[in-house]
């Protein structure tokens, strides 16, 4: 109820006058309280004579926001779309007097400016992160100021801020550079504090004496390292395409006075959209009576109307997809089918065209369904189809649930690899859908999608920016297909070590459709060997001697062994690591075989073995799409049609887009 009332409050504009659009421009002085005369030991965000603002560090999760400080106390005055423009450049990335090894930074990557939104002022303080909204990341141009812009919906009170998103640590990197190259300007603050804690009175006095020398140069005055330079920030808005806004018109039409609203018409229209079907008057009449009674009891017309609409939004008929009674008829009604199609592709309610086809009882025709799926896939709203399918089928929604160790896998956090991993898979699937590529590219492809961070992670040569690009893979490269993507390899690890069992089970469940039985409850789990003296293959041998485990592990383990060439974040390796020791551990043995005798020695040969099982994979993919689209598991009655659908994909018509249309028009999809 609270959620419904909150949404209605934001969507309604009764009594509002259209706000005027305004342009506000902020100077460097308005975006930072620090200037070059500040006596801080290290300056992170420095205003230089109000000409520009230099940002000398950055972190994956931003702690020091750069924002218009006075403006942030109130934020933007109205809900609406705003244009945000920032003029910025990259300074000294390629030309500085230090060595690149002095910095924890990949100088092959462009310096990047991140733009965020803080919905409330408390999200601008140091250390705040949860609740901030990342809008976009821009590749900055070296030594050349450019204007970067984005159009964003902002709620009242929001403030945009920017920062150097792929920079380095301030306290670590910049202080080390200062101590190495500019020791004369470094204040021994931390040293003195540490000494004072241990009785170092002399060091404490040294700190006090140094602090009094206010004419000493600062590190910020002599530092010539890489930094992001901000010249200005502009916010312009709010902008409205229509007035009242579309949200208000969908609820009430163009009526701006609640007292003038045709209550019967508004509730009838809204209830039929909310319940996603035609309604008889008796099915919504009680909402009309409820609103009238509230008004008679003293509620304002606006409050009573919103309560009536909230009642509709909290009805089970809105919150759940009503797919009728299976005992009466297994086939979905036209309106039920319209909803199944729309939530399958758009994850949202049907539009007017689907509703109209349902009213005319034309939606149950195979040709009409295929045409509608094609139309829906061309709509920008279909972008959620790929994301939700990948999250559901490939379990990408679990990526990050067991975060990798921050000390062992620093690059995972420094280069924001979690987001990049997901984006690679989303782009890969979206391209396959757009191009109607063969579904068997999912098993083995000669291309993928990377940005600079992921390309570095994979060891791909070339220059890349923040935006993802489609790249061809060398034949000898250890990528291609889903099993070469870091998202899948990371989600099937636990953040510390790899498990052939977990990865083997993932292949059986998601690519071959033959999940193993759960392990017996009385079998002890394997304790990892953190010293690296035994391999996981050797440790798993003991499970082979347990009769209840032997059959399943014979199917699971070999598939996982072939993926041991990838570490917990999907980096390629040929040796196991040895904890606490330098050098390489034992060589990885990726050999194995299927129960039918088909053998392989590494991840590439495993993919080739999977390619020889195209029918089994096609059947699995059909099942996964049906489960995703219908919201139920497949039953025995579905198997015959699933087999037929899979066989049709084993011919020249094996495009991914074709498969989505075929699944949506199948009898299984159209049935309860």
Written description of the protein model:
The chain has helices at residues 2-11, 28-31, 69-72, 170-181, 189-197, 201-212, 219-222, 246-252, 263-274, 285-296, 301-313, 316-319, 334-345, 352-359, 366-378, 383-393, 410-414, 417-434, 452-458, 486-491, 500-510, 536-544, 547-561, 603-611, 614-630, 639-649, 656-664; strands at 22-26, 45-48, 52-55, 80-91, 112-118, 133-139, 146-154, 159-164, 227-239, 447-450, 469-472, 592-593, 599-600. It contains 27 helices and 13 strands. The chain has 672 residues and is of the alpha+beta class. The strands form four sheets. Strands 1, 2, 3, 4, 7 and 9 form a six-stranded antiparallel beta sheet that branches. It has a three-stranded antiparallel beta sheet with strand order 6-5-8, with no helix packed on it. A two-stranded antiparallel ribbon has the order 10-11.
Keywords:
flat, 27 helices, single chain, 672 residues, alpha+beta, six-stranded antiparallel sheet, 12% strand, three-stranded antiparallel sheet, 13 strands
Instruction: Determine the mean pLDDT.
Output: 88
Cα(first) to Cα(last) distance is 30 Å
Major β-sheet profile:
6 strands, antiparallel
Helix content: 25-40%
Structural class: alpha+beta
**Form type:** flat
Strand content: 5-15%
Cα Rg: 30 Å
Low-confidence stretches: 37-42
Count the beta strands. 13
Question: How many helices does DSSP assign?
Answer: 27
Name the quaternary structure: single chain
